[in-house]
Amino acid sequence: MNNTLVLVAGLLSLPAYAADHYTIDSSHTWPMFEVSHLGYSTQRGRFDKTSGEIMLDIAAKKGSVELTIEADSIDMGFQKWDDHMKSPDFFNVQLHPVIRFVSDKLLFEGDKVVGAEGRFTLLGTTRPLTLTVSNFRCATHPMLRKMHCGADISARIQRTQFGMAKYVPLISDEVKLMVPIEATMD
After folding, report:
1. If I label 153, which of 11, 100, 129, 145 is the partner at 20 to 30 A Cα–Cα?
2. To 10 degrees, the CA torsion angle through 129, 134, 140, 145?
3. Which domain holds residue 115?
4. Is this prediction's pTM over 0.70?
């Protein structure tokens, strides 16, 4: 076979970019939210069960994220409130068991991820969402001895855009999302 053809065939078989695969560490990734409650206080909740993966190629400034949140894992601090938040008034977990963010566009400043543009699905409605990423860091995990990345993620949504309108405006339409996230290279 001609050397040029071998070279061209080899180049065509390379992936678009060689990304490292990371699995989200569910024991250190707890999506949280906060919302104004009747104008008196800021109430917070979190979700205790997450999964997902991250593809990351820092050299090429490319990557992707898929984060899945089990809506039934909501934790507001006591069972009666958890049950109300799981009801059709809010997260309707029987009909919509997962909340998901998917992105194939990471935003970089130098070698640091500073954002992600993607799609957020809540209550069966998917809308565009841009996340802000701060404190991004990758290094060898001191106990796992594997490459490990972490960051703090934040965004704001209008819950009515996803069909969650109960008690608006008494309970704010605007919801702040905060996610400490960690992931380990496979």
Report:
1. 145
2. -60
3. 18-185
4. yes
- Kindly state the helix (H) or strand (E) to which residue 86 belongs, with its residue range: helix 79-86
Backbone angles phi, psi at 72, to 5 degrees: -65, -10
Amino acid (one-letter) located at 90: F
Q: What is the full DSSP assignment across 112-127?
A: EEEEEEEEEEETTEEE
Residues in the chain, pLDDT under 70: 1-17
pLDDT tens by residue, 66-112: 999 999 999 999 999 999 999 999 999 999 999 999 999 999 999 99
Q: Could you say which DSSP state residue 159 is in? A: G
CATH number for the domain spanning 160: value is 2.40.128.110
The span from the CA of 53 to the CA of 62, in Å, is: 14
End-to-end CA gap in the chain: 37
Amino acid at 70: E
Domains contained in the chain, number: 1
